[in-house]
Design brief:
The protein is an alpha/beta fold. The strands form three sheets. Strands 3-2-4-5-7-6-12 form a seven-stranded mixed β-sheet, sandwiched between helices. Helix 1 runs parallel beside helix 8. The protein is globular, with a radius of gyration of 19 Å. The N and C termini lie far apart (42 Å).
């Protein structure tokens, strides 16, 4: 795997490897063959792709039917449309009926940039958290993405994976092993802990490195496993931390900010919590990724500035 990799390419290669290993896996797309980068899979297995056209509800229902027939079904399309258009089918056909469907939310967050709020998935985690019986993951780098997808394919039952739309470099060492439920500590520190998920973990690490260079003591925690989540372990990581900052390309309600707030409150931690993301009742700005993240203070400079202000 190269230093920087597009998550959709990793997904497709995992599908190919799984079928070659004997997994009866069938991808289902909603006219999203380009978005899913599925062509290499079709070249290997031309009879295994189901394309239902621009009909997300049908896509999810079809995937549930395939799963009920014994197959591993994987839906592959843009996160904003998967979440918004097939909400009921995910809730009933997938979660309630416990079908073996893997939902890949591609181009999540503000990946679509200038296409604005209709194409931004800033509520997918909160929506999926509202459903019972579905695992939720948000990989931050290629090695983690690959291992999360391999876990999802092996695991029986519903899974949602939040996939970024840009090629991302590695954050973990080659010996990294993803463990469902466990957050990973990328930087150690005692003055402020930055908790992040998905592609903005890169922004958090860059911010922490600049602060560490300035002599400050900053931790970075990557929360890629949303459900399951070892809350006790996350609480232990945050214990004694004066300040905690959450960073997400998502609304601050229902996503990582809410999860960390729950952990802080439930475990009686004394940390001051600051949530960075899309504000309550707002939408991400229409613009390219740097503009959007700068506007939300979730780029490395914005995160660093917030942390500096907290530490005085």
């Amino acid at each position: 795997m190269s230093n920087s990799e597009h998550f959709a390419n990793i997904m497709v290669q995992c599908f190919i490897d799984a079928v070659k290993a004997g997994v009866d896996l069938v991808p289902v797309v909603a006219d999203s063959t380009s978005t899913s980068k599925i062509k290499p899979f079709v070249a290997e297995f031309p009879d295994r792709l189901v394309n239902v056209g621009i009909a997300e509800q049908v896509m999810v229902g079809t995937a549930a039917g395939l799963a009920l027939s014994g197959k591993v079904a994987a839906t592959c399309n843009a996160a904003p449309f998967l979440v918004s258009r097939s909400n009921e089918q995910v809730k009933v056909d997938v979660c309630y009926n416990n079908t073996n469907v893997k939902l890949f939310g591609l181009n999540s967050g503000a990946s679509y940039g200038p296409l604005a709020s209709t194409h931004h998935a800033i509520d997918d985690i909160s929506t999926m958290r509202g459903f019972g019986n579905i695992q939720i993951f948000a990989p931050s780098c290629p090695i983690e993405c690959k291992q999360i997808i391999e876990h999802a394919i092996r695991e029986m039952g519903p899974v949602y994976i939040r996939m970024d739309g840009k090629a991302l470099p590695e954050l973990h060492d080659a010996d990294y092993r993803f463990v469902p439920g466990e957050p990973s500590l990328l930087r150690k520190g005692s003055q402020v802990a930055i908790c992040a998920l998905g592609s903005v973990v890169h922004e958090a690490v860059a911010a922490a490195d600049s602060l560490i260079e300035a002599g400050l003591d900053v931790a970075v925690i990557n929360v890629s496993s949303i459900r399951p989540l070892n809350r006790e372990l996350l609480g232990n990581m945050l214990s004694g931390m004066p300040h905690v900052v959450t960073v997400e390309e998502h609304n601050i309600n229902g996503g990582l900010g809410s999860i960390v707030a729950e952990v802080v409150a439930e475990q009686g931690l004394k940390s001051q919590l600051t949530r960075l993301g899309v504000a309550d009742g707002d939408y991400a700005a229409a613009g390219d990724r740097p503009y959007t993240r700068n506007n939300l203070s979730i780029d490395s400079a914005g995160i660093a500035s917030v942390c500096q202000n907290l530490m005085g």
